[in-house]
Amino acid sequence: MLSLPSRIVLAVAAGGVAVAVLVHLAMMFLHVAPSNTLTKAHGAAVDDYVYPEYEQNWKLFAPNPLQQNISVQVRAEIRPGDGGSARTTGWTDLTARDGRAIHHNLFPSHTEQNELRRAWESFVGSHDAQNRPSGVRGELSERYLRRIAMGRLGQEWTARGGTVARVEFRSVATPVGPPPWSTEKSEIKPVYRVLPWWPVTVDDLPEGASNQ
Asked: What is the largest CA-CA distance in the chain?
Protein backbone atom coordinates (compact mmCIF):
# COMPACT_ATOMS: atom_id res chain seq x y z
CA MET A 1 0.00 0.00 0.00
CA LEU A 2 1.28 3.45 -0.89
CA SER A 3 2.36 5.80 1.84
CA LEU A 4 0.52 9.07 2.41
CA PRO A 5 3.23 11.23 0.73
CA SER A 6 3.19 8.93 -2.31
CA ARG A 7 -0.57 9.16 -2.57
CA ILE A 8 -0.40 12.94 -2.34
CA VAL A 9 2.20 13.08 -5.13
CA LEU A 10 0.09 10.80 -7.34
CA ALA A 11 -3.03 12.84 -6.66
CA VAL A 12 -1.27 16.10 -7.51
CA ALA A 13 0.19 14.56 -10.70
CA ALA A 14 -3.21 13.19 -11.74
CA GLY A 15 -4.79 16.56 -11.07
CA GLY A 16 -2.15 18.31 -13.18
CA VAL A 17 -2.72 15.92 -16.08
CA ALA A 18 -6.47 16.38 -15.82
CA VAL A 19 -6.13 20.17 -15.88
CA ALA A 20 -3.79 20.00 -18.90
CA VAL A 21 -6.25 17.75 -20.78
CA LEU A 22 -9.17 20.04 -19.98
CA VAL A 23 -7.23 23.12 -21.13
CA HIS A 24 -6.26 21.37 -24.37
CA LEU A 25 -9.84 20.25 -25.07
CA ALA A 26 -11.15 23.72 -24.31
CA MET A 27 -8.64 25.33 -26.69
CA MET A 28 -9.47 22.89 -29.48
CA PHE A 29 -13.20 23.42 -28.94
CA LEU A 30 -12.81 27.20 -29.15
CA HIS A 31 -10.67 26.80 -32.27
CA VAL A 32 -13.29 24.83 -34.22
CA ALA A 33 -16.38 26.47 -32.71
CA PRO A 34 -18.25 29.27 -34.49
CA SER A 35 -17.30 32.82 -33.56
CA ASN A 36 -18.50 33.68 -30.08
CA THR A 37 -17.82 36.04 -27.19
CA LEU A 38 -14.86 34.01 -25.89
CA THR A 39 -13.15 33.63 -29.28
CA LYS A 40 -13.62 37.32 -30.00
CA ALA A 41 -12.03 38.26 -26.69
CA HIS A 42 -9.29 35.61 -26.60
CA GLY A 43 -8.89 34.54 -30.23
CA ALA A 44 -5.20 35.49 -30.33
CA ALA A 45 -4.40 33.31 -27.30
CA VAL A 46 -6.30 30.37 -28.82
CA ASP A 47 -4.43 30.75 -32.14
CA ASP A 48 -1.06 30.92 -30.36
CA TYR A 49 -1.86 27.63 -28.63
CA VAL A 50 -3.27 25.83 -31.68
CA TYR A 51 -0.91 26.86 -34.48
CA PRO A 52 0.91 25.14 -36.00
CA GLU A 53 0.99 21.82 -34.16
CA TYR A 54 -2.72 21.32 -33.46
CA GLU A 55 -4.40 23.02 -36.42
CA GLN A 56 -7.53 21.23 -37.64
CA ASN A 57 -8.60 20.79 -41.25
CA TRP A 58 -11.00 18.60 -43.23
CA LYS A 59 -9.16 18.10 -46.51
CA LEU A 60 -9.65 14.34 -46.36
CA PHE A 61 -13.41 14.88 -46.69
CA ALA A 62 -13.36 17.89 -49.03
CA PRO A 63 -15.12 17.73 -52.40
CA ASN A 64 -11.71 18.00 -54.06
CA PRO A 65 -9.09 16.17 -51.95
CA LEU A 66 -5.44 16.88 -52.55
CA GLN A 67 -4.23 15.28 -55.78
CA GLN A 68 -0.56 16.14 -55.53
CA ASN A 69 2.52 14.70 -53.93
CA ILE A 70 4.32 17.57 -52.23
CA SER A 71 7.94 17.31 -51.14
CA VAL A 72 9.51 19.94 -48.89
CA GLN A 73 13.22 20.50 -49.45
CA VAL A 74 15.78 22.76 -47.78
CA ARG A 75 19.36 23.91 -48.24
CA ALA A 76 21.67 26.12 -46.21
CA GLU A 77 24.38 28.70 -46.62
CA ILE A 78 27.33 27.85 -44.38
CA ARG A 79 29.69 30.61 -43.26
CA PRO A 80 33.17 29.30 -42.32
CA GLY A 81 34.72 30.41 -39.08
CA ASP A 82 37.95 31.60 -40.72
CA GLY A 83 36.22 34.33 -42.69
CA GLY A 84 36.47 32.54 -46.04
CA SER A 85 33.82 32.31 -48.71
CA ALA A 86 30.43 30.94 -47.74
CA ARG A 87 29.29 27.67 -49.28
CA THR A 88 25.81 26.49 -50.17
CA THR A 89 24.72 22.94 -49.44
CA GLY A 90 22.73 20.81 -51.82
CA TRP A 91 18.97 20.39 -51.44
CA THR A 92 17.86 17.91 -48.77
CA ASP A 93 14.43 16.34 -49.25
CA LEU A 94 12.93 16.41 -45.76
CA THR A 95 9.72 14.76 -46.94
CA ALA A 96 11.63 11.83 -48.40
CA ARG A 97 13.49 11.37 -45.12
CA ASP A 98 10.20 11.25 -43.24
CA GLY A 99 8.87 8.76 -45.77
CA ARG A 100 11.84 6.45 -45.26
CA ALA A 101 11.39 6.63 -41.48
CA ILE A 102 7.72 5.64 -41.81
CA HIS A 103 8.15 2.94 -44.47
CA HIS A 104 7.79 -0.56 -42.96
CA ASN A 105 7.38 1.01 -39.49
CA LEU A 106 4.28 -0.41 -37.81
CA PHE A 107 4.21 2.38 -35.22
CA PRO A 108 5.63 5.57 -36.76
CA SER A 109 5.80 8.57 -34.49
CA HIS A 110 3.49 11.56 -34.76
CA THR A 111 6.52 13.72 -35.60
CA GLU A 112 7.54 11.53 -38.52
CA GLN A 113 4.02 11.54 -39.91
CA ASN A 114 2.81 15.06 -39.36
CA GLU A 115 5.35 17.62 -38.13
CA LEU A 116 6.76 18.69 -41.50
CA ARG A 117 3.48 18.31 -43.40
CA ARG A 118 1.53 20.43 -40.93
CA ALA A 119 4.31 23.03 -40.79
CA TRP A 120 4.24 23.40 -44.57
CA GLU A 121 0.44 23.57 -44.70
CA SER A 122 0.55 26.27 -42.02
CA PHE A 123 3.07 28.24 -44.09
CA VAL A 124 1.05 27.97 -47.30
CA GLY A 125 -2.15 28.96 -45.50
CA SER A 126 -0.59 32.05 -43.96
CA HIS A 127 1.33 33.46 -46.97
CA ASP A 128 0.30 34.96 -50.28
CA ALA A 129 1.54 33.90 -53.73
CA GLN A 130 4.63 36.10 -53.29
CA ASN A 131 5.50 34.29 -50.03
CA ARG A 132 4.66 37.33 -47.91
CA PRO A 133 3.36 36.50 -44.41
CA SER A 134 -0.11 37.59 -43.38
CA GLY A 135 0.27 38.66 -39.78
CA VAL A 136 1.73 36.94 -36.75
CA ARG A 137 0.64 33.47 -37.83
CA GLY A 138 2.72 33.77 -40.99
CA GLU A 139 5.81 34.83 -39.05
CA LEU A 140 5.31 31.93 -36.62
CA SER A 141 5.10 29.45 -39.50
CA GLU A 142 8.40 30.72 -40.92
CA ARG A 143 10.09 30.37 -37.55
CA TYR A 144 8.66 26.87 -37.16
CA LEU A 145 10.11 25.77 -40.51
CA ARG A 146 13.52 27.18 -39.62
CA ARG A 147 13.48 25.35 -36.30
CA ILE A 148 12.59 22.08 -38.04
CA ALA A 149 15.47 22.52 -40.48
CA MET A 150 18.00 23.35 -37.79
CA GLY A 151 16.77 20.62 -35.46
CA ARG A 152 17.10 17.96 -38.14
CA LEU A 153 20.08 19.15 -40.17
CA GLY A 154 21.98 21.73 -38.13
CA GLN A 155 24.68 19.35 -36.91
CA GLU A 156 24.89 17.64 -40.28
CA TRP A 157 25.40 20.95 -42.07
CA THR A 158 28.12 22.12 -39.67
CA ALA A 159 29.97 18.80 -39.32
CA ARG A 160 32.79 20.25 -41.42
CA GLY A 161 32.87 23.46 -39.38
CA GLY A 162 31.30 26.87 -39.79
CA THR A 163 27.86 28.19 -38.90
CA VAL A 164 24.53 28.20 -40.70
CA ALA A 165 23.91 31.76 -41.88
CA ARG A 166 20.73 31.27 -43.90
CA VAL A 167 18.31 28.57 -45.02
CA GLU A 168 16.12 28.33 -48.10
CA PHE A 169 13.05 26.13 -48.55
CA ARG A 170 11.26 24.98 -51.65
CA SER A 171 8.37 22.64 -52.39
CA VAL A 172 8.04 20.28 -55.33
CA ALA A 173 4.41 19.51 -56.20
CA THR A 174 3.92 16.57 -58.55
CA PRO A 175 0.37 15.78 -59.71
CA VAL A 176 -0.80 12.23 -59.07
CA GLY A 177 -1.23 10.58 -62.46
CA PRO A 178 -4.41 8.80 -63.51
CA PRO A 179 -4.56 4.98 -63.16
CA PRO A 180 -3.44 2.90 -66.16
CA TRP A 181 -7.01 2.02 -67.10
CA SER A 182 -8.18 5.65 -67.19
CA THR A 183 -8.46 7.67 -70.41
CA GLU A 184 -7.91 10.91 -68.50
CA LYS A 185 -4.96 13.01 -69.63
CA SER A 186 -2.84 14.67 -66.98
CA GLU A 187 0.35 16.71 -67.01
CA ILE A 188 2.85 15.10 -64.59
CA LYS A 189 5.26 18.01 -64.62
CA PRO A 190 6.50 19.06 -61.16
CA VAL A 191 5.82 22.61 -59.98
CA TYR A 192 8.38 24.34 -57.76
CA ARG A 193 7.72 26.96 -55.12
CA VAL A 194 10.99 28.51 -53.95
CA LEU A 195 11.00 30.64 -50.81
CA PRO A 196 13.38 33.52 -50.03
CA TRP A 197 16.53 32.95 -48.04
CA TRP A 198 15.85 33.33 -44.31
CA PRO A 199 18.59 34.35 -41.84
CA VAL A 200 19.12 31.89 -39.00
CA THR A 201 19.23 33.29 -35.47
CA VAL A 202 19.81 31.75 -32.07
CA ASP A 203 16.02 31.52 -31.63
CA ASP A 204 15.92 29.01 -34.50
CA LEU A 205 18.21 26.54 -32.76
CA PRO A 206 17.00 23.56 -30.70
CA GLU A 207 17.29 24.10 -26.97
CA GLY A 208 20.86 23.60 -25.81
CA ALA A 209 22.29 23.45 -29.37
CA SER A 210 24.90 25.71 -30.89
CA ASN A 211 25.10 26.86 -34.51
CA GLN A 212 28.54 25.43 -35.21
From this structure: 73
